[in-house]
Amino acid sequence: MRPSPVPQDVATELDRATRRWQQLPLDRAVAACPGVHALLADLVGEPVPDLGPAVVIDQLRAIVFEIYDDPGEGRVPDLANRLTSLRLSWSQLSG
Length: 95
Fold this sequence. Notes:
Helix content: 55-70%
Structural class: mainly alpha
Radius of gyration: 13 Å
Distance between the termini: 41 Å
């Protein structure tokens, strides 16, 4: 099994975001989806399908993996900090 291509700092923040997302009440997750979709669109350069709050974090995890798995893509500047900011923004949402 080969190691993950995702840098450790990004993987750590992605894991934290995933755990936090799983703890969000549904109304807060729905309210947080636009922020996740904005990051996804920025990462891929176009809007991604809105499949709802149940899978948006899986979309994020898959896209981050694909970006780092593609040798032509390279690093995403400041992605770990962007993931941290996104995760922390969920605490400020009201449902």
